[in-house]
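Action item from last week, closing it out:
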Amino acid sequence: MELKVTTLEGKAAGSVNLSDDIFGLEPRKDIIQRCVQWQLNKRQAGTHKTKDRAEIWRTGKKMYKQKGTGGARHGSARVPQFRGGGRAFGPVVRSHATDLPKKVRVLALKHALSAKAKDGGLIVIADAQLKDAKTKALLGHFSSLGLTNALIIDGAEVNMGFAAAARNIPNIDVLPIQGINVYDILRRQKLVLTKAACDALEARFK
């Protein structure tokens, strides 16, 4: 697969050949969905917690005698039936993470990249370098490229000026190649790769 390379200013900068094994697959929604669900499960904090009857600070003495009151038979005031009592079967601190084989995660990333390439949402730029860390200047570059909602993937290190300028722009994410993931690719309309990112992806999946 051959794609044209542009600069941040929107000028032509040659072309790049992308592997069909990475960008030319027929996207499978089931594999992509499994990976997205795995990511969302893994990032859940799982810190929700309620107190059960053993953690309520109340007396455990029997409230009143067993018979003769005309009411229900009660013992401790810590039981869930009473206001302020412990909650029955409430949430506890736990991990929501699920397992997903590494081969499936790798395949899901390839299918997500292929999906972007297939629907025309993939753009390759020469580099993501910005001399002056000015958001206004970067907005002008994005306007020339037609980017309003995009994920930008650079090489091993992101240019600090570029990242600082893009920080205040809504719906724009900037990540190094190590941070590329299925969920962030799908949640943005456009995927912008630098030539360094393309080379890193080719080497990673070789």
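Closing note: The CA atoms of residues 154 and 176 lie 5 Å apart.
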